[in-house]
Specification:
- This protein has about 210 residues and is an alpha/beta fold.
- It has two domains: about 140 residues, Receptor L-domain (24 nucleotide stem-loop, u2 snrnp hairpin iv. U2 a', Chain A, Alpha-Beta Horseshoe), CATH 3.80.20; about 35 residues, no CATH class.
- Helices cover about 20% and strands about 20% of the residues.
- It has three helices and ten strands.
- Strands 1, 2, 3, 5, 6, 8, 9 and 10 form an eight-stranded parallel sheet that branches. A two-stranded parallel sheet has the order 4-7.
- The protein is elongated, with a radius of gyration of 25 Å.
Length: about 210
C-alpha cells in the first residue's frame, strides 16, 4: 500500500515539475515577446520603458504625432537595432524634417491592420530614409507632406509592395495623373483624354441610372 502511494506521489510530483518547466518557457518561446511590444504614441521616457534594447523586432502599433516629444536623433537611436516591425507605424502631423529612424528597417509586416506604414500631413518633412527596406505585406501611404519629394520612394515601393501603396499630395509625387476623386459628369473633365493606364482600384457602384 505504501509503495503504491509513494508511486502515485512521485508521479504527481514529476508531472508538476514538467508542467512548471513547460510554462516557464512559454512566456519566452512564444510568438509574442512583450519586452519587444509597443502599442501607443511614442513619448520621451527611458528607452527601456519603450522596448528592450536587445530587440531587433518590435510588434504593435507605433504612433508618432504632435504629442511625440522625441527629436529626430532620439528616434534614430531608439530604432537603431530594429530591423523588423510587425504592425503599423503612423507618422502624422509632426514637426519632423527627416525620417531617418527607419533606415535600418528591412521588414514591415502586418499585425491587426492592413497598413504597415503611413506618413501623413507632416508640414516640414523633406526626407524619408528607407535604405534597407526590402519586404512588406501591407499597405504603405505617403500623403499630404507639402515639402517632401517622394519620387524616390515610387520605384522602391513598386518593387516591394506591388500595388499596395499610395503616394499623393506631396510636393513631388510619382508623376502622371492622380485620380483622387469620385468620377462625376463634372469631375471626369479633369481626366486627361489620352489616359491609357490606371494604377490602383477602379470600383463601379450602383449609380441609379
Amino acid at each position: 500500500m505504501l509503495n503504491i502511494l509513494y508511486f502515485l506521489m512521485s508521479t504527481a510530483i514529476l508531472e508538476l515539475i514538467i508542467f512548471v518547466v513547460d510554462n516557464q518557457g512559454f512566456d519566452y518561446d512564444g510568438p509574442m515577446d512583450y519586452d519587444c511590444y509597443y502599442w501607443d504614441t511614442l513619448i520621451a521616457m527611458p528607452v527601456e520603458d519603450l522596448w528592450a534594447s536587445r530587440c531587433d523586432t518590435v510588434t504593435g502599433k507605433i504612433t508618432i504625432d504632435s504629442a511625440t516629444n522625441l527629436t529626430e536623433s532620439q528616434l534614430e537611436k531608439l530604432f537603431q537595432n530594429i530591423t523588423t516591425i510587425n504592425g503599423r507605424v503612423l507618422v502624422e502631423r509632426t514637426n519632423l524634417k527627416r525620417l531617418t529612424f527607419l533606415k535600418n528597417v528591412v521588414n514591415l509586416n502586418t499585425y491587426y491592420s492592413a497598413y504597415v506604414l503611413e506618413i501623413i500631413d507632416n508640414p516640414f518633412l523633406t526626407q524619408v530614409n528607407l535604405d534597407k527596406f526590402t519586404s512588406a505585406d501591407g499597405m504603405v501611404t505617403v500623403r499630404g507632406n507639402p515639402l517632401l519629394n517622394a519620387s524616390k520612394l515610387c520605384t522602391q515601393l513598386e518593387k516591394i509592395v506591388g500595388e499596395h501603396w499610395r503616394i499623393s499630395r506631396n510636393k513631388v509625387d510619382c508623376g502622371g495623373f492622380q485620380l483622387d476623386f469620385p468620377l462625376t459628369f463634372d469631375s471626369i473633365l479633369n481626366v486627361p483624354p489620352n489616359l491609357t493606364f490606371i494604377h490602383g482600384d477602379v470600383i463601379f457602384r450602383e449609380t441609379g441610372a
